[in-house]
Automatic annotation (TrEMBL):
Mg(2+) 2 binds at residues 265, 268, 304, 306. This is Xylose isomerase. It is found in: Cytoplasm. It comes from Pontivivens insulae. Binds 2 magnesium ions per subunit.
Amino acid sequence: MTSTYFNGMEAVPFDPDSDGLAFRHYNPSEIVMGKTMAEHLRFAVCYWHNFVWEGNDPFGGQTFERPWFPADTMDLARAKADAAFEMFRILGVPFYCFHDHDVRPEGDSLTESRDRLNEIADYFEQKMENGPKLLWGTANMFSNRRYMAGASTNPDPDVFAYCASTVRTCMDVTHRLGGENYVLWGGREGYETLLNTDLSRELEQMGRFLSMVVDYKHKIGFTGEILIEPKPQEPTKHQYDYDVATVYGFLKRFGLENEVKVNIEQGHAILAGHSFEHEIAMATAFGILGSIDMNRNDYQSGWDTDQFPNNVPEVALAYYEILKGGGLGKGGTNFDAKLRRQSLDAEDLIASHVGAMDVCARGLKAAAAMLEDGGLEAARDARYAGWATADAQAMLADGATLDGIADRAETAELDPQPVSGQQEKLENWVNRFV
């Protein structure tokens, strides 16, 4: 069925001169560095914030009134899907993402929840014939009270088994719908206090679970990527998957660094004390960049507020690292962002994404221009030019010893002098593009 929630709104056009609702920078067919914008950006709309969230916050309840709320029946779940796919059509996005909990009501039993997910997947298949593809699926293993002490890290082995069933079903559905990735979002994988926590045991459980997920991927012939989403302090105080570096160390420990990549969220990067571009560059350096969630935080609140991006310079630096690293591959730009509680109209859902997509398009073009200019890479190359000499390379070669290097320094009476990092000059250079 076609939803009436958006009142028959037409698809948003690309029209830089429009005074109405239109894309002014995102032209999906525009060529940037040999690929279309659509191919570079691979936009996705998330199901949860747009169609599940009711507008509540820690101090107030529901502000949004949607005709599919509370979505506690399969009929309402289908009505929600009708609205979602209508929104995807209006925006012209190529992808969407969901948790199992987003798209079907919880059943009275584990098997009923499984059957309901498969039922709604049948409905999705019909709608996807001429619509968007699935960027990734995932399982909500954090909201229900059964997960209050973790999912795969839970002290109760029955919860571990429950998670195995949940993830198997979600992976099967993601595979059936042609999903390009499967994400493990560890919202409760961490601990509040060491007083009641066996940390080493929980890490072993988490590693074993992830290994089994990878084994199952190969068993069913799923060709997408398995992704972990790093996230600090949300909501668990001590999160095991704190940032990209932490996740990579975890993957190396369990021999999964060639099997699992990361889905990086801008808001989580900030909460971890990093910039978005830092986390992207780190993932690229490790060879584990998978996909991104594009949003922003309120820098005054100190919490993950999941706002739509509106800062072109920040976005440009993120896409600079993505383009430099070879692009997003099977990943994409998912808007893990939500309206403000006072933005009540159906059109607000469209306008928020149009603005965000334009910001990303402007950022992408700025990033491409910076790369094509080459000024930043030239400055980086010049800063490390000394390492291109034979003597410098020999210090890093197999067989080099601390004694040998130290003796060379003393024989030559080395007295290296500091050289300017020219940070301000480079910041000025970036500002010429953004």
